[in-house]
C-alpha cells in the first residue's frame, strides 16, 4: 500500500500543496487533470526523482520519502518510451535484470514470458526504430514489468498513440493489472481513459486534489462544479430557491426526486432529455416549451442547446431525430425529463 500524506512541493512559481491519497495493493489508480496542474510532478515524487518540501511518502507503513529511486522497487514508464535504440527488443526488456552470465538464462526466460503476455513475441529480435508506437509502448511496459515492481508508474503512456491503438492498449493495461496484481499509478489528461482504466480516479485541478472516487461515483456525485466541468458534464446548474422537491432555477421550476438540504447543484444528463415537437403524456414531471439555440455533432449523435427563458440545456439526439424535429435556430420544441433524471451534488 502506498500512502501519500499531505504532500507539497514548490518548483519556481509552481506549487503543489497538501495532496493526500492512498493506493491499495493491486489497485489501478488514475490521476486525472489538465496540463500544468502537477500530475507528473506528483508521479516523480512517488518515484523518488523529486523530494517533496512537505509531507511523507509511505510504503506499507514505512517512510520512503528520502529513499533514492533505485531502492523503492518501482518502475516508471514515460510517454516517449525511452527505449535503447542500439538494443533488440529482447535486450530492452531484460535491461533491468541481473547481467551476470549465470543469470542470463533466467533473464531470457523472463523477457520471453513478458513478450508473450504483451503479444510482442515476434518482435524480440527487432530494434525499436522498426516498431510502431503501440509496439514500442508494449516493449516499454514489458521492460518496466521485468523487474517485478511493487508499483508501476505510467506518465501519459497512451497520449502519443492513435485512437485505435490507444483503445487496444487500454485493454492490455487493465488485463496486465489484473493478471499480475501489480498496483498502477497512471497519469493522464483524458477523462475517457481514466474512466475506462481506473478502479479509482483522483481529480487534480488548480494544483489541488479535488476528489478521489470510483469512476461511476465521480459522475453521480462530483465534489464541486470544477470537477463536473472538467469531466465534460453538461447541464450542471446551481440550485436556487427550493420548495418541496422543486428547484427554481433561472425562472423555471425543476422537479427533483433526490433533493436534500446539502444539495448545491443539480445535473441533468443530456441523453436523458427528450425533445419533441409537441408536449406528450408522460410520467415525467419536467416538461416545458423551449427554443433551439444551436447544435453541434458528437459522433453518431448531435448536441442540441435549447433555452427556456434564461435556462439553457443541452440534449443529445440521433441524426434521425434531428431530421424529424426539423431542428433549426429559433424553432419552438418541448424538452421532457424525469425528476429521477436530475442528479444532485
From TrEMBL:
Record keywords: ATP-binding, Molybdenum, Nucleotide-binding, Transport
InterPro entries tied to this protein: AAA+_ATPase (IPR003593), ABC_SmlMolc_Importer (IPR050093), ABC_transporter-like_ATP-bd (IPR003439), ABC_transporter-like_CS (IPR017871), Mo/tungstate-bd_C_term_dom (IPR008995), Mop_domain (IPR004606), P-loop_NTPase (IPR027417), Transp-assoc_OB_typ1 (IPR005116)
Pfam families per UniProt: ABC_tran, TOBE
Claim: Transport is one of the keywords in the record: yes
Domain called Mop: residue spans: 281-345
The keyword Metal-binding is assigned to this record: no
One Gene Ontology term of the molecular function aspect: ATP binding
GO biological process, alphabetically ordered: molybdate ion transport
Residue stretches making up the ABC transporter domain: 1-231
Protein's recorded name: ABC transporter domain-containing protein
Amino acid at each position: 500500500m502506498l500512502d501519500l500524506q499531505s504532500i507539497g512541493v514548490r518548483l519556481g512559481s509552481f506549487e503543489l500543496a497538501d495532496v493526500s491519497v492512498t493506493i491499495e495493493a493491486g489497485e489501478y489508480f488514475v490521476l486525472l487533470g489538465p496540463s500544468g496542474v502537477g500530475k507528473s510532478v506528483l508521479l516523480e515524487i512517488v518515484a523518488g526523482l523529486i523530494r517533496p518540501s512537505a509531507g511523507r511518502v509511505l510504503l506499507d507503513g514505512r517512510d520512503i520519502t528520502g529513499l533514492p529511486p533505485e531502492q523503492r522497487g518501482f518502475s516508471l514508464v514515460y510517454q516517449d518510451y525511452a527505449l535503447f535504440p542500439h538494443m533488440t527488443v529482447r535486450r530492452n526488456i531484460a535491461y533491468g535484470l541481473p547481467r551476470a552470465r549465470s543469470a542470463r538464462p533466467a533473464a531470457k526466460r523472463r523477457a520471453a514470458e513478458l513478450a508473450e503476455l504483451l503479444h510482442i513475441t515476434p518482435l524480440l529480435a527487432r530494434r525499436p526504430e522498426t516498431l510502431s508506437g503501440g509496439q514500442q509502448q508494449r516493449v516499454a511496459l514489458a521492460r518496466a514489468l521485468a523487474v517485478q515492481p511493487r508499483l508501476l508508474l505510467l506518465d501519459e503512456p497512451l497520449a502519443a498513440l492513435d485512437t485505435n491503438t490507444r483503445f487496444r492498449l487500454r485493454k492490455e493495461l487493465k488485463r496486465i493489472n489484473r493478471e499480475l496484481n501489480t498496483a498502477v499509478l497512471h497519469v493522464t489528461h483524458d477523462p475517457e481513459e481514466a474512466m475506462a482504466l481506473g478502479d479509482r480516479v483522483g481529480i487534480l485541478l488548480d494544483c489541488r486534489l479535488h476528489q478521489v472516487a470510483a469512476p461511476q461515483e465521480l459522475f453521480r456525485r462530483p465534489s464541486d462544479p470544477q470537477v463536473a466541468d472538467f469531466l465534460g458534464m453538461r447541464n450542471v446548474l446551481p440550485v436556487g430557491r427550493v420548495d418541496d422537491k422543486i428547484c427554481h432555477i433561472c425562472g423555471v421550476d425543476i422537479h427533483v426526486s433526490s433533493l436534500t438540504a446539502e444539495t448545491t447543484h443539480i445535473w441533468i444528463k443530456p441523453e436523458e432529455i427528450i425533445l419533441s415537437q409537441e408536449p406528450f403524456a408522460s410520467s415525467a414531471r419536467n416538461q416545458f416549451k423551449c427554443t433551439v439555440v444551436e447544435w453541434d455533432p458528437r459522433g453518431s449523435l448531435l448536441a442540441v442547446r435549447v433555452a427556456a427563458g434564461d435556462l439553457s440545456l443541452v440534449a443529445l439526439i440521433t441524426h434521425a431525430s434531428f431530421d424529424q424535429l426539423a431542428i433549426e435556430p429559433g424553432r419552438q420544441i418541448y424538452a421532457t425529463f424525469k425528476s429521477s433524471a436530475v442528479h444532485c451534488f
